[in-house]
Amino acid sequence: MIPINHFLVLAAILFSLGIYGVLARRSAVLILMSVELMLQAVSINFIAFAVYLSPEAFTGLIFAVFVITIAAAEVGLALAIILRLYRNKATANVDEADTLKW
Amino acid sequence: MSYEEVIFYVVAVPTVVGAIGVVTARNVVHSALFLILSLLAVAGVFILLAAEFLAIVQVLIYGGAVTILVLFAMMLTRVRDMPAAMDGPQRPFAALAAGIFMGVSILSVVSTEWPGESEEIHVISMEEIGSALFTTWAVPFEVASLVLMVALIGAIILARGEEGE
Predict the structure, then answer these.
(1) pLDDT for position B101
(2) If B123 and its partner were Cys, which of A16, A24, B41, B50 is the partner (CB 3.0–4.6 Å)?
(3) ipTM score of complex
(4) How many CA atoms lie within 13 A of A91 on its CB side?
């Protein structure tokens, strides 16, 4: 059986790449894709802990189901907001949406 | 190295390569294709963890719906026509922050002794997941349904625009 460390390190690498993408990219669509990567990392962690540490209760597995549900809702809503931004400002870059910046 | 570890690397390497592609590709459509690779490889990781249900859901929702939505958003917002849409000036700081986070989390994972690690993997069947979802987790399940419905209505209203526009 694979040690649990393997999965946790994979999730850590995936999450860090997501952080890099969220901070470095300018386009809102690309930021959204990086957020998806971070959610994937969290799901891997949840499932690994559920399977390895408490296989009787498998709470982590149920949590991963909810993570996927909320991610689907988030993507739909975020893309609607990005479309709206594009229509109003003719750009999908987050640093050009600075109406609230003083 | 056991054969399980070999299979682990067979799915883990595409996951990481896809993720690196998502955050570094110069072409946004390539980014989206790398995202598909990464998400499908994560489905393989789920299968390796004996969570087949999650793997199926992963392929259906992420491999299908989410990537199609992202590609549609790229088409509608014409990200591809904007070469300046890629990376901002904060890139070195982003790399620094991500690097520090990766170092700290990997160090803490490696230096921790995980208790009660079972020798045999316990397969959690779909029946168990289903009955748990509708008994123990019935209230969160209903709340998740409500969240999905509100998000759908919100997305429709946001994307439709105001009257007479």
Answers:
(1) 94
(2) B50
(3) 0.90
(4) 14
